[in-house]
Design brief:
single chain; Rossmann fold; six-stranded parallel sheet
């Protein structure tokens, strides 16, 4: 091709601080700035709201302003009817934009457009990206399910697989998840990129454990606090800090219920200076019930932290070399999670050697490496 690739990304919004938005922004910036690609991002939400993460001036953003977020506050039945109405408008407007832009490649983050994107005859290759694992895609929160929703979810997955089969490529984040899509022969694996390479690493002198993530059932902070209740008694000079976005009240209440020392167990808001938080810590713990990848593991390891993580689906086993740069614990086993933290705390020399290995092993996730994998994928389509 004698001109720069023209790429269109499709995602709902850019204004919230979630992992998929962060990764999309990183890749789009790199493709526009380093490869010279013509990049457009088409969104449907957040009219007049600025992107949360810095976006290159070379990237075009088109907001269709459809307001799907209105569905959040409706009953399940009403959501269905409202979704159908908005989806009809979305299909018409997105088709018009793609026919106008005529991109070489259209990349869907597998939201509402996956239901019709293969039918748009704009001449572009179609790629899908999945940022969670199959088992937990369209996963309902604890207590937010019923027989009707479960039947709907099965029908929805069957329909999704049929759409994915028609894509030119379908990208997942881990080898573990690739094996979950046995019906497909167009699956490739590209890990998420490391969002930064720190100039320095943690000296591992602070007696502090850190956990990072949204205050949501998925992240398993309820299990972490239960595990910490044992660690706190065994290691009285160590502290736990949790940083995340969302409603903290449930976890603050757990601190009281478990009679934890509030001066040594802090439930805090998110921060843009997350590198500083890692550098002030000596161990990262990830207690998630499930993940798409586990970006906090990669970030912490880059900052020189050994890690302890549940071996949940999917991501940790693709990132952590158990016993080398961190410890993998049976998923959901609170007792084992506590024991792993205590072992790390009580073995400072092993903790330091794992930290060294972590900084080496995590280099395979650097942006240059991941971007070149995408470049090779794009070029293989033509």
């Amino acid at each position: 091709m004698n001109r720069p690739l023209k790429i269109v990304y499709l995602t709902p919004q850019l204004y919230m601080a979630d992992g998929a938005v962060r990764v999309l922004t990183m890749k789009a910036n790199y493709f526009a700035e380093q490869f010279g690609y013509d990049v457009t991002i088409i969104i449907t939400e957040g009219q007049d709201k600025k992107p949360f993460y810095p976006l290159s001036d070379k990237i075009h953003v088109i907001n269709l302003n459809l307001g799907f977020e209105e569905l959040w506050h409706q009953s399940f039945i009403k959501k269905v009817f409202l979704y159908i109405k908005k989806q009809r408008v979305f299909k018409r407007q997105l088709t018009q934009e793609l026919m106008r832009l005529r991109p070489d490649i259209t990349i869907s983050l597998l939201r509402r457009e996956i239901n019709f994107i293969n039918k748009v005859k704009d001449g572009s290759m179609k790629i899908g990206e999945l940022h969670v694992n199959r088992s937990n895609y369209r996963n309902f929160e604890k207590g937010d399910t019923n027989v009707f929703k479960e039947v709907f979810a099965k029908f929805w997955m069957h329909n999704l697989v049929n759409h994915l089969k028609r894509l030119d490529k379908f990208i997942v984040l881990t080898e573990e998840d690739r094996r979950n899509w046995k019906e497909l022969d167009n699956v490739a694996i590209i890990h998420n990129p490391l969002p930064f390479m720190p100039e320095k690493i943690s000296p591992l002198t602070e007696k502090r454990v850190i956990a990072v993530g949204r205050y949501a059932y998925q992240k398993g902070f309820d299990m972490l606090l239960k595990a910490w209740s044992v660690v706190e008694k065994t290691c009285p000079d160590w502290t736990l800090t949790i940083r995340g976005d969302g409603n903290r009240s449930e976890y603050e209440a757990m601190v009281d219920e478990l009679n934890l020392d509030k001066s040594r167990c802090q439930i805090l808001e998110p921060t843009r200076q997350i590198q500083d938080e890692y550098l002030k810590s000596s161990l990262l713990v990830m207690s998630s019930r499930f993940e798409g990848f586990g970006m906090v593991l990669v970030e912490a390891m880059a900052c020189g932290l050994p890690v302890v993580s549940f071996d949940c689906p999917c991501g940790p086993k693709d990132i952590i070399h158990d016993g080398v740069d961190g410890l993998l614990v049976e998923s959901g086993n609170v007792e084992k999670l506590g024991e792993a933290m205590i072992w790390m705390i009580q073995h400072p020399e092993k903790r330091k050697s794992m930290a060294v290995e972590a900084t080496h092993n995590v280099k395979r996730f650097q942006m240059d490496e991941i971007a070149n994998q995408w470049k090779q994928l794009f070029e293989s389509l033509f």
